[in-house]
Amino acid sequence: MARPESRPSSYQEGNESLLMSNLSRPAGPADNGFMLPTHNEEKGRDPHRRFFRVHTAGQSGRNGIHPLLFLQVCFRSTCTLSMIVNILWPFVPAAVAIHFARPDLHVWVFALNYIAMVPSANLLGFAGGELAKKLPKVFGVLLETTLSSVVEIVLFMVLIHNDQNGSLIPVIQAAILGSILANLLLCLGLCFFFGGLGREDQVFHEAVSEVGSGLLLVAGFGLLIPSAFYAALNSSSSNTTATLEEITRSALKISRATAIILLAAFLMYLFYNLHSHHTIFDEILEIDENRDEDREKEKKRAKLTLTECLIAIAISLTFVCMSAVFLVHEIEHIVHEQGVSDNFMGLILVPVVEKAAEHLTAIDEAWDNQINFALFHCLAPSIQTALLNAPLAVIVGWCLSKDVSLNFEIFMIVVVVLSILVVGNFLRDGRSNYLEGGLCVLIYIIIAVTTWYYPQVGGHGAETGAEAEVAAAHRL
Fold this sequence. Notes:
Has a role in promoting intracellular calcium ion sequestration via the exchange of calcium ions for hydrogen ions across the vacuolar membrane. Involved also in manganese ion homeostasis via its uptake into the vacuole. Belongs to the Ca(2+):cation antiporter (CaCA) (TC 2.A.19) family. Residues 106-273, 311-452 form the Sodium/calcium exchanger membrane region domain. GO terms for molecular function: calcium:proton antiporter activity. This protein is mainly α. The protein has one domain (56-474): A middle domain of Talin 1. The chain has helices at 11-24, 67-76, 80-85, 91-101, 106-132, 137-162, 169-196, 206-234, 244-276, 278-290, 295-300, 306-338, 342-354, 356-367, 371-399, 410-427, 434-452, 466-475, and strands at residues 202-203, 431-432. A two-stranded antiparallel sheet has the order 1-2. The radius of gyration is 23 Å and the shape is globular.
């Protein structure tokens, strides 16, 4: 693909002028696609048009379902990388079969289901993206992100259900933070890197970056408090008379209260995006659609109908949830027998594969110069994990009498907070380039290497004596 020439310094100002002029005019019949109405326009407008966009690139021109064309469209997906991933679909039935036929082959069951999650998640991302193009822009992106979060929520719920005496809680905690890290450093870094190739820089709107980075900083602060409370009172320099058990119980209560507060923050986030400020974000994303370098090709590409979107989402959710459940059943065996730590399993291995669909979608959008869309697909999942999925895991654990808390390993939570600060600094100037993207990916690799050598601290994976030496030998 031919890359565009470097953008002039006035490019951002031009976009902002266009944005303000679009905001100042009402949506008319000549608009290409449906724009969400302002508060004064909602009365008297066809109610169906508030929920579906018409005359857009997301329309298929068909109704119902056409099996052969449905399979063809799903296989071709939206980009070459996504189509290559679909070659892995034979691993899906193989992973299901080996789980039932040879449950004793723990490594093979884990490996096959790990691979099988990639094409299943890819189809979920593609079908969610097709559905999002038929809906109002911001609502579509948030719905697409929520569909991917379903996989993460299912994973957390199965881990909580299978937990015995707190054995899987370290994996849940690491997976929460690992999901945030994967989106902030790996996914956003790859977006900046590939989007910056052949360009001097990419310009994104401050409304997306500032709201996203601000919410992440607040979420990071909320996640840090229980860990800081526990670490401060449990340190050797603390003069407290409270016992370790009392400190742990207090940290658990703080975690549950914090979870409820973070859920309230998530509701405010939804109201802000979908109601009070939706027109601003819709206009920003419309500008991104107009500067899509593959726009003409995208218009000509065969699309899924609404019915086909729902069928593809149902199929992909079924397979990806099955793989997630089978994967969880093997975690204890992999951790115990192969010397893989809880932290590495939850912080690196699980989030990378569970977020594969979002990563592919965001990278393709950045490559096509739709950097605001890419930012939405990187920041929104991190916000949902911090403000929705993590609190939900704590509350469900509370209801099941499982001590799931936000009292993370201090190493991991500090890494996440520092990553939020690094990404926020890169977003501050409203521009990105391949250098910033490459640095984010390198930071993620450093964290992965460090986590691989991070020792077990408790639970079923605790190592002592000879077991620690065996695990160290495995890692080397």
